[in-house]
Amino acid sequence: MSRNFATEIKSPKFKDPSLFCKSAFINNEWVNAKSGETYSVIDPATENEIGKVPEMNVEDIREAIKAAKSAFKEWANLTAKNRHDFLLALHSQILENQNDLATILTLENGKSYNESLGEIRYGATFVEWFAQESRRVYGDVIPSPFKNHKIIVEKQPIGVVGLITPWNFPSAMITRKVSAALAAGCTVVIKPAPETPYSALALAELAVRSGFPKGVINVVTTDKHIKEVGLELCTNLDVKKISFTGSSAVGKLLMEQSSSTLKNISLELGGNAPFIIFDDADIDSAVEGAIACKFRAMGQACIAANRIYVQSSIYAEFASRLADKVSGFQVGNGFDPKTTHGPLINQRAVNKVTRHVEDAVAKGAEILIGGTKHTGNFFYPTVLTNMTKEMVITSEETFGPIAALYKFETEDEVMKLANDSPYGLAGYFYSRDIGRCWRVANALEVGMVGVNTGIIHNCEAPFGGGSDIFINIKESGLGREGSKYGIDDFIDLKYVSMGGL
């Protein structure tokens, strides 16, 4: 597949270089770590350093929490219209600077420039959405059982929020969390992934330009002090909520640490999404959906298809058509205009994908296309057939560009296979039988279902893991992000009992 490696690289250029911020952001000031330490951020495509940012520790995170606490009362007491206006100003700034933001994202994450641009626009929709939702945080008047008495329920912001975000969508995951928190009236301390701090810092700069008051938004960067900083966010009494996106293992640890202060917590964790193609499906549509679902961000997405189940009568045809489409991908540097798919984030990711392919092949899988790395962090998109449940991919989230195809015979059989996972984030299936559509959508033990579509993310819909009809909670997280429900995770209810009327 060497012919599919794009090599025409143009040096990225910024229209506004000041958006490439290399300091942390606390109380509307650009600051260095108190220790003076820094760490290097690496471009996964070239493996060259693109810059340094402060290596902050517990002392620094406490300063950020202090600033957020100081700003909270004033921010919470603004009218909803005021917060709406700030967020809309930020939305405008993001769209005005989307090209530079996409350049930053490609530099630190590696995805193609066009995909980065799509993420920036997608992230901006959450800022606009929650600007509007800030004006719809309604309370209630409950009919009282007593005369001369009223029961009022008010909604109030929860307080200072610690936001811990991942590297795979370094802009959109921040806007999805921050916008809801700010709309509710909370102030925030953001700890971005060490691999991708610059997207967070650029958004902080745009918040300054949008007029946000000091202390409302704070960004702390760290690499080697991640554990200590995370522990401080979870145990500090002034932080009232943690919102985290990442692995289930880390989510469990943060939940355990937050229990010491009974802190409110939202978790968007791992997935192992089944993707089912029934024999009555539109195969061309299913292939396109699988590509969108599996290979976006090189498969480095929690809702990416991990196990693709194809009914036996169409298995060979689907596999052939999918492999043919994948053969047209151009892997390379994200700034090459020919590139459709960039590198994996680092060598750990490459090693995991390699291990999954080697394990599958050793147990009888066949490689239709791909299956090998190129150089550095680049791995060719892969299609595997003859997959079985004994293979590691079946139980582990690959987080890479491997389309693993499993054969099934009946609807009952595939539902047992699809639900045989501790995770319950997302699931997908293709069918033109309307009765089957409702049966399978209800039976999948996940929080989000894509029916005849491989794309399920948008600001209007609630994003998060789920449980099955027997309330068997799975390990893909707690709470919802986006939609009209997303703001609720940052709100407390206050009951006012008013007598003597």
TrEMBL record:
Pfam family, one: Aldedh
One Gene Ontology term of the molecular function aspect: succinate-semialdehyde dehydrogenase (NADP+) activity
Residue span, Aldehyde dehydrogenase domain: 30-496
EC number(s) recorded for this UniProt protein: 1.2.1.16
Cited InterPro entries: Ald_DH/histidinol_DH, Ald_DH_C, Ald_DH_CS_CYS, Ald_DH_CS_GLU, Ald_DH_N, Aldehyde_DH_dom, Aldehyde_DH_Superfamily, Succ_semiAld_DH
CDD domains reported for this sequence: ALDH_F5_SSADH_GabD (cd07103)
Protein's UniProt name: Succinate-semialdehyde dehydrogenase
The organism's taxonomic lineage, starting at the top: Eukaryota, Fungi, Fungi incertae sedis, Mucoromycota, Glomeromycotina
